[in-house]
Amino acid sequence: MSKFDVVVVGAGTGGTMAAREAARRGLKVLLIDRKPKEKIGDKVCGDAIGRHHFDNLGLSYPKGEELESVFEGIEIYSPDLETVFKVKGERLEGFGVNRHRFGQRLLREALDAGAELMDNTTVIEPIVMDRFVKGVVVRNDGEKTSIEADIVIDASGVAGVIRKRLPSDFGVEKEILQEDLIVAYREIRELKEPIETPVYAKIYLSQAIAPGGYYWIFPKKDGIIVNVGLGVQSGPNAPNPKKQIYEYVLNQEIFEGSKIVHGGGGAVPTRRPLDCLVANGVMFVGDAAFQVNPVHGGGIGPSMIAGKIAGETAVKALEKEDFSREGLWSYNVKFMQEYGAKQASLDIFRWFLQKLGDEELNWGMKHKLVTEQDILKANLGEDLRLNITERAIRFFRGIRRLSFLQKLREVANIMKRVKQLYQSYPGPEDFEMWRKEIHDIFSNFKKNT
After folding, report:
1. Based on the number of CB atoms within 10 Å of its own CB, is 130 exposed (0-12), middle (13-18) or buried (19 or more)?
2. Domains of the chain (ranges plus CATH)?
3. Residues 6 or more apart from 145 whose CB is under 8 A from it?
4. Is residue 217's pLDDT more than 70?
5. CA geometry: angle at 16 spanning 10 and 18, to 5°?
6. Residue pair 153/8 in contact by the 8 Å Cβ criterion
7. What is the CA radius of gyration of the chain?
8. How far apart are CA 55 and CA 308, in angstroms?
9. Where are the alpha helices (DSSP H) in 339-430?
10. Alpha-carbon distance 88 to 114, whole Å?
11. Are 83 and 366 in contact (CB under 8 A)?
12. pTM higher than 0.85, yes or no?
C-alpha cells in the first residue's frame, strides 16, 4: 500500500491549489483525478475570476492564450430589461479565462511544487479505521488499489465522493437539498458582430425565463466570442435549462447567425458552506464543501481560497502529528472568516431573491431600494444597506408596497446576524450550539419567506 502525507481527490481549481500549497511546503502529496492529465481543467464553467483572487493568492494574472477577456464590472438587468445596474469597482474587476488552459496551469504549478499525479483514476471510497479517514480506495485500469494518507482532502466537486461515503457518526452533511442546487447549461458561441460593452459581464434576472436563477452573457475574445448560459433552481418542476436558453435567449438578435463552439451543463451548489469543513483525517474543499457564491454561483475564487487554507492546515497538522477534527479545526475558522461569513449572509439574500416574482424585481430595481453601490458592498461582504427614507416609506405605503419594504429590511437584519455568527466561528467545544442557532435562523427564515 502506497503512503502519502496528503491525498487530494479531484484536480479542479481547489484541489490543485491544495496540492500546490502542501507540496511546496515539503509534504508528500498525491493528486488524483478521473480525467487524463491533458484534459484536466476542461469543464463547463462561467470562466470568470475576480482579479483580487489572484492578488490574494499570489498567483500571476492570466495571459496569452489563457486570457480571453478583462472585465471592469457587472451589468445586472431587470426582468423587463428597463433597468440596468452597472456595478463596478476594484473588487469586481476580473478576467475571463480559457478554463482548460487555466486548469492546466494550476496543475503544472502543483506538479512543479512536488505533488504527484494519478490521472485516469476513479476514487471509490475512503479508508476509515478507528473513526479516522486513513486514505482512499481507487480504481485504475480496472484494478482496485488502496492508498494510505495521514490527511485526505475531498475536492471532488458537487459529487462529494469522500463526503458522501463517510460513516454517519462523523457528523458531516452528506447530501444537498435540491432547493440549494442550480442546474445550468451554457454554450461558448461566436457572434457575427461584437457584443456591446464587452468589458462588462452581463447578468439577467427573470423568474419567468430562469426560475430561481438567472441567465448570463460573459464576453470573451473582443466580444466576438461569448459564454452564454442559464441556470434554474433544481426541483421536480424545474424547466430544462437548455430548452429555456434556446427558447428565450439564443433567439435574441445578437445571436442571429452565431455559431456554437462548445456546449454543456452541470449542477452548482448555491448555499452556505458546510457547517463543518473537517472531520478526523479529512477536509472538504470547493463544490464538495458548497463553497460557491450563493447569488452569482461563482466558485473558482472561493475554491482556490479554500485549497490554499487547506494545504496550509495540512502542513501544521503534520508538524503536530494531529490529524483529528480538532487538529484540522483552524481550516474551519480561517475559511469562515475569510469567505464563509460573506457566503452565508448572501445565502439569505439568495433565498429572498428566489421567492420574488418578476413584477417585484422590476419594481425594486426601478426604485433602487438597493443601489449599485449597495450591491457592490454586499458582494464584498459588507452589510446590505437599503435606500429607504421616511419619504420613501410614505410613498410605498400609499402604493401598498410597504410589506415588501419591511421584508427587505428584515432580510438585511438577518444577513447581518448570520455574518456575525460566522465571523465568530466557534471552537469544537461550542460547535453544536453554534450550528443549532444557524440552522434555526435559516429554517425560520425559509418558513416565513
Report:
1. exposed
2. 2-67+96-174+273-338 (3.50.50.60), 179-269 (3.30.9.10), 345-448 (no CATH)
3. 2, 137, 138, 139
4. yes
5. 100
6. yes
7. 22
8. 13
9. 341-354, 358-366, 372-379, 390-398, 402-423
10. 39
11. yes
12. yes
E strands of 59-120, at which residues?
67-71, 73-77, 84-88, 94-97, 116-118
What's the CA gap between 158 and 160, in Å, rounded?
5
Task: Show the cell assigned to 419.
Answer: 455574518
33-76 confidence digits (pLDDT tens): 999 999 999 998 889 999 999 999 999 999 999 999 999 989 99
Distance, in Å, from the CA atom of 341 to the CA atom of 339, rounded to the nearest integer, reads 6
Cell of 389: 427614507
SS3 386: coil
Residue 394 CA to residue 158 CA, distance in Å, equals 47
Contact by Cβ (8 Å): 228, 189? yes
> How far is it, in rounded angstroms, from Cα 305 to Cα 303?
5
| DSSP string for residues in 125-168 | EEEEETTEEEEEEEEETTEEEEEEEEEEEE--GGG-TTGGGS-G
